[in-house]
Amino acid sequence: MIRPSYFVLPEFTFESGETLKNLKVEYTCIGTPKVDPEGFIINGLLHIHGWSGDYLSVKRLLPLIGEGKPLEEFFIIAPTSLGSPRSSSPSTTGLGIEFPQYTIKDMVNFHYEFIRRKFKIRKLKGVIGASMGGFQALEWGVSYPDFMDFLILLVTTFKVRGINYAIFEYMNKLIKADPAYNDGRYRENPSLGTCLASMFMYFYGFSREYYSSLDNMELLDSMIKAGEEGMELDANDIIWRNNAAMRFNLEGQLGNIQADTLVVGIKEDQYFPPSIDTIPLSKMIKNSKTIIYDSICGHLGVNELEKIQGELRKFIEPHLPVEG
What we know:
By secondary structure, the chain is of the alpha/beta class. It has helices at 90-93, 104-118, 132-143, 162-177, 191-205, 208-213, 216-230, 235-246, 278-284, 309-316; strands at 5-13, 19-30, 44-48, 75-79, 124-130, 148-154, 260-266, 289-293.
């Protein structure tokens, strides 16, 4: 069973210059650390979840872990991101709208500080990020180009634009239109707004073919379930996360990446269609490799990585840790 642990950063400074003390980091680890003669971990692999995930999203890697599997040799570190509940966020700190408007780079620096303080690591073997976690993985490659040997970018992009920008903005508007939101100074979560925002987001997670395979009552039931789940999400947490995503833009900076890079897309992904995102992203990163596969689950087909297990093994093999 995957269980969380917690670490407290004594102090963290945001890109805005604001500083908060005692920020909590939720995380889990899978595997056994291997160390060099000086005691430094040499097989660290960071997994970063997407918009709606947390440390438990590392479950998508479980089919790739075990004897003879691509990730058998790695010590996997899977934290919950800055701004997501149970790590520090507007809701979990109690700061609400006083919580700094963080950026994708803040999210990366938050994990960087955590890794440097918690673990004896000079350099990660790799970073794997999915969707919004892919934004962060790219930022890792740009901001800390010498800190990892490889990047695996799953269903992601280099710049939020077009329909994705519109989705985030419309979700924010739905929440703010709920009278209970009260400019973010609510006593009770504006659950109507978060319900509608989550129902709207549901329409893009799967492929068009998947939605067409459901009868109308099945589709309605799924929409209602998504809305009910959304009612449990904090409104300011959603808006702050969406704001960070909408400002994400690494166009013109990808030349900084030195790590070997694998860009993975899904043909039926409505958020990041390969022709618009996966392929152009790969072309912007020198010597990167690309894998595109099919999934009726669309964007959420990222949880079917066993489909490309052979290709992942081939990419990772040159980077397997060697004990000195």
